[in-house]
Amino acid sequence: MALDAPVERRDEVQIAMGNGNGVAPSQPSRPAGRPTAAAAAAPYADRRLRLNPNADHKPEDYSDVRGEYAPAVYSALERHLPPSLIDADRDVKLHFMRDILARYWPQGERNKVQRHREYRQRILHLYKPLHEELYNMHPSVFFLPTFLEAVRSNTEECFRSIMTEPIPGVYSFAMLQPTFCEMLLEEVENFEKWVHAMKFKIMRPNTMNKYGAVLDDFGLEAMLNQFMEQFIAPISKVLYPEVGGGTLDSHHAFIVEYGKDRDVELGFHVDDSEVTLNVCLGKQFFGGELYFRGIRCENHVNSETQHEEMYDYTHIPGWAVLHHGRHRHGARATSSGLRINLLLWCRSSVFREMKKYQKDFPSWCGECQREKRERQSQCVKATKMVSPNTHTQANRLCLCCHFLDTLYFL
């Protein structure tokens, strides 16, 4: 159910780079006898990252680093370095972190990323925007006053005051100004016409959507980075701390189109994100409800849906729905009209690395929690059924259940 075909994986890796451009510069020459960063980092190769970040540590400045990942990725990851490495030279730490991040990016993907970068640079050189004001952040023009006030207050109480939570982990709220929605719709339409006139190939958002466009491809990346960092990350830090909501550092932003001569519906799936923002831009349409069927980890993505996990959300132009990327969902058929939505997949490289060290049931997976409750219930039943003389054995059974819970995801 995960979206992992070649086109989308290319988008995924490209976005993971954040604002990175070009090739990483070679290391400066070193005085004779001084070890290279690779040699200095070698003794730390078997060290694991800290599960919780070192909040008191001030990361190095990586703004001069170009290439695979954005500087913010290295700064966020540095807080998780093992104590023996956190005060090492910057080059040593950088080499260690690059080794970790390289595991997610094989050479074949690097080649695809380079081709996509060249494709994007050509568009940025030739395409003339219709609405220049979209390419810089203007909060009062983009967002409704109620949403801005909640973000400025930056408290859980204020966030929840503008939201509804129909099922756990799914939030809906009024977000975008009508003028912003109209401008973005016009900009996308203008870009698609330009692509057609130039006989240029348009990269689609993923392998499931045959229509729509990747917004970063024609210059909106910097604005959308601010969109995520200043307006989504503060909310995610409060509402989704268990899936890296406080360490979002990259995004994949795109437009999807549903209706006649467009995509009609979207199959049941999960997103390649930690947190997903889905905002309806318009236009006039019927149908197209978004249906949710429970949050699942990789091990349980195809498990059955419980009745209490079922929910259908009806889109309203300007309104957003925010949810876990691993929340299983799909889109029902748009029976008439045209529905266009803005999607922002928000990702955390730190959370993805830390998932490897997970030793307990994910607190956010509905099926993991259900299985854990079943084990605990069986343990309680076993304790009640035994005679007083066998309480010691029952207690051992309970300890065994707890031990199995702990080892389940080793």
Description:
InterPro entries: Oxoglu/Fe-dep_dioxygenase_dom, Pro_4_hyd_alph. Keywords: Dioxygenase, Iron, Metal-binding, Oxidoreductase, Vitamin C. Its cofactor is L-ascorbate. This is Fe2OG dioxygenase domain-containing protein. With 410 residues, this protein is of the alpha+beta class. Among the domains are: 224 residues, Jelly Rolls, CATH 2.60.120; 50 residues. The protein contains 13 helices and 12 strands. The strands form 2 sheets. Strands 1, 2, 3, 4, 6, 7, 10 and 12 form an 8-stranded antiparallel beta sheet that branches. A 4-stranded antiparallel beta sheet has the order 5-11-8-9, with no helix packed on it. Helix 1 crosses helix 5 and helix 12 packs antiparallel against helix 13. The protein is globular. The relative contact order is 0.13.
